[in-house]
Design brief:
Blueprint: H1 36-39, H2 52-63, H3 66-69, H4 71-78, H5 82-112, H6 119-127, H7 137-172, H8 198-213, H9 222-245, H10 262-272, H11 279-285, H12 292-318, H13 334-367, H14 375-396, H15 400-427, H16 435-481
Helix pairs in contact: 2-12, 4-5, 4-10, 4-12, 5-6, 5-12, 5-15, 6-7, 6-15, 7-8, 7-13, 7-14, 7-15, 8-14, 9-12, 9-13, 10-15, 10-16, 13-14, 15-16
């Protein structure tokens, strides 16, 4: 996940500026941009952009995060057969929607004579094609920006919960950590020394996250981001190795899960396909943008394979005891305790990159309204408030699997499934779009809408139920102590 330090905020007077910062801007700055007709072929006159391989790596990084580690539980919620098949179907639909977004961006940028468009701008100009929507086209951009903010802050909430759960587990098992990597009877890391609540761990991480987002230029984090990517890759390989070598036969797991759990699968799966926000920035930065379709298909094929394989293998290995993140099931040995800590380091660094997008949308318009002497103080104050806000949300919902599913259902479903088909309908409104294509787009958007409604409802219901159980346990414990 990447983004730019030099953000050109044009609409400083509004909450949602004309320029949308992207996660790719900071570590992958835009080259000087040729016109759109020229960009359709290649960058000319010595202008440089990212290569095929660099773009592929950025696309993989933009789609592989904490969502991948939650997919074994998602497969459990859908079933050992239905889960992988559903992931394949969602992968195909997600890639199709990414391709629709790029296609609409090309079409609209040519119409308005712009070298490139952001996701929000594409929605705005698309709505201008429809006469009765033209007056409200700004709301199209604002709505997309709003869901981008919700999604990115949701990722930050997930990172708080992920770090607290994994570090808590490492601390509690520290006295019994050995060199023997054998599973116990419950397929869970053994808790030898119970420590304080995971929400207190979140408060401990809060100052570190606040200092991290004070980084004046995210390019300073580029070396750490590279190290984070390498250690996360190594950790992922070790997780694959352990899961593959500890599958027990015969496998007696349900092929199809319970119907009421399937919305939780949807939320986690669509959360995992989180990279649609980096698609346009990546395409805009390529040296040869006409090669982006191949990058997209190759990259997302790799991503979908990783999702299906780790989700299936992880569930087969740990069965009904699978946790909200597969790291929570790893045994008490130094190797896999190190895996948890290394992955936590990678997630910690990634927090700054995820936080960049909402910060650069929300903060500059406010800073523009204060005098120059107060700009830095106000900027740092707002960053602190946003981090505290994400921490507070994480404390309210300290359940990793449910917060992932909730964020996916609420925001990722709109950005990845609902908006792109609608964008094609409005962008090609006057271009003779066939009824079959329109029907297909309506169907995809309906799938996303149903997933949003059911996934959000079930996730909220489960959060309330679990909090109720915890409250009852706390009361019964207090009664026994008395």
């Amino acid at each position: 996940m990447m983004a730019s330090s030099d953000v050109d905020i044009r609409g400083e007077g509004s909450l949602f500026p004309d320029h949308n910062p992207s996660e790719m801007d900071a570590l992958c700055p835009s080259p000087p941009g040729p016109s759109r007709p020229q960009r359709n072929y290649e960058r000319m006159g010595g202008r440089t952009g990212t290569s095929f391989f660099q773009t592929l790596i950025h696309l993989l990084k933009g789609n592989i995060g904490t969502g991948l580690l939650g997919l074994p539980l998602a497969v459990k919620n859908a079933g050992l057969v239905l889960g992988p098949l559903s992931l394949l179907g969602m992968g195909i639909i997600a890639v199709h929607c990414m391709r629709l977004l790029v296609k609409c961006s090309h079409h609209l940028s040519a119409k308005v004579d712009r070298s490139s468009l952001t996701y929000g701008e594409a929605m705005q100009y698309g709505m201008e094609n429809v006469s009765w929507l033209r007056r409200h086209s700004q709301w199209g951009k604002r709505t997309v920006n709003l869901f981008l903010i919700i999604t990115q802050l949701g990722f930050c909430c997930v990172y708080f919960v992920f770090l607290s759960d994994n570090v808590k587990q490492v601390v509690e098992a520290a006295n019994a950590t050995t060199f023997s990597c054998q599973m116990n009877s419950t397929n869970q890391t053994a808790v030898l020394v119970p420590s304080f609540d995971s929400r207190l761990y979140m408060l401990c991480f809060l100052p570190a996250f606040v200092l991290l987002v004070y980084t004046p230029n995210l390019k300073y984090l580029a070396p750490l981001s590279l190290v984070a990517n390498l250690v996360m890759t190594a950790s992922l390989l070790l997780i694959y190795f352990y899961s593959l070598t500890h599958i027990t036969y015969p496998i007696n797991l349900p092929a199809v899960g319970r119907a009421k759990d399937y919305p939780l699968f949807f939320g986690t799966a669509i959360f995992a396909f989180e990279g649609i926000g980096v698609v346009l920035p990546l395409e805009n930065k390529m040296q040869r943008p006409q090669s982006f379709s191949l990058v997209l298909y190759v990259g997302m094929s790799i991503v979908t394979f990783l999702y299906i394989s780790l989700g299936t293998i992880g569930y087969m290995c740990f069965g009904e005891h699978i946790g909200g993140s597969i790291t929570l099931n790893l045994p008490n040995c130094w190797t896999y305790q190190a895996v948890k800590l290394l992955y936590c380091f990678g997630i910690f660094i990634t927090f700054a990159l995820q936080f960049y997008v909402p910060a650069e949308i929300l903060i500059p318009p406010v800073v523009a309204r204060v005098s120059e002497r107060w700009e830095t103080a106000v900027d740092l104050l707002l960053r602190t408030v946003l981090v505290i806000f994400t921490c507070a949300l994480a404390i309210l919902i300290p359940e990793l699997d449910l917060v992932i599913s909730l964020v996916g259902s609420v925001s990722s479903s709109f950005l990845a499934l609902i908006f792109p088909p609608i964008l094609q309908i409005v962008a090609f409104h006057n271009e003779g779009l066939s009824p079959l294509v329109t029907a297909k787009n309506v169907l995809i958007s309906l799938v996303g809408l149903i997933g949003f409604l059911t996934g959000t409802y079930i996730a909220v219901e489960q959060i309330i139920a679990r909090n109720g159980l915890k409250h009852e346990d706390t009361l019964s414990t207090s009664f026994m102590v008395q």
